[in-house]
Amino acid sequence: MPQKKTFSLTRRAFVAGAAAAIAAPGLRAQASWPSKPVRFLVPFAPGGTSEIVARSVAAELSKQLGQNVFVENKPGGAGVVAMVEAQKAAPDGHTIILGHVGTLAVNPYMLSNQPYDVNRDFVPVTLLAKVPNVFVIHPDVPARDFREFVAYVKKNPGRLSYGSAGNASAGHLAMEYLKLVTGMFITHIPYRGTGPQLTDLLAGRTQASSAGMPALGAHIRSGKLRPIAVGTLQRIAAMPEVPTVHEMGYKDFETSQWYGILAPAGTPADVVRRIQEESFKALRSSAVTERFATDSAVGGGGPASEFATFIAREQKIWSDIVKRAQIKAD
Prior knowledge:
The structure is a single chain. This protein is an alpha/beta fold. The longest helix is centred in the first third of the chain and has 22 residues. The termini are far apart.
């Protein structure tokens, strides 16, 4: 009899455990992720806003997860090099990539030979941040403000150049959009990242640029660069004296840099949800909120479905701008 009772209890325990496992597969997957360091690909060179956003979040994720979340910069091909690598990675949540307005909303309409489909081969995880685009010029340019700059460029078409972090980078898109609405002609010079293009701008080898406050703030405060406008509809707290392009008479002009996390298609839904939840927690940490406040960045952290809707809306906007502005892969 005692043996029969023991068998019965053991059998009931086994059945109960199996039922719990079947009912909650997400708990099993979440418990096993991450089982090793997480690789966070950034499709641009070091020194730009994309890297700053990624490293700020990665540092907090490493603390929360007990595994190293390491940022790997992989520039090239307007972000295509990094996207291909992420696409081919195992869909287990241990390789993620920083999505961006250029790679997700512009490249599909600017590049005719992408070796992947951004909507089919990747899973949106969460929006991390939206960062205002700031338009700056070198102090040697004989223009004190936005209107004078536009007038000067129009009087000297093709004589000035602007640098960007590369084709389809946020700065490239913002400046081409500005050229479209103002009728300016200023030559685009793509670099392999914000850092390299800022080196030439600070040296006066190029005359203008657009980037985010994380990359520009220190140079603006030191007087090495002159801000002439911001791309948001409202002025930003960090520079309340700098007008928006919208208020300069270009109605509804709006452009910002935005960054989010993507995973390879096939990544389990529960792992995607776990990355989103941990990212939301990281974005609410004091280290990240303080850094974002300094850079006038607005944190995200919402669910994957919300990020997917946001990407679809941005694709609709930028597909039209790419066509109208005839943005090319220089």
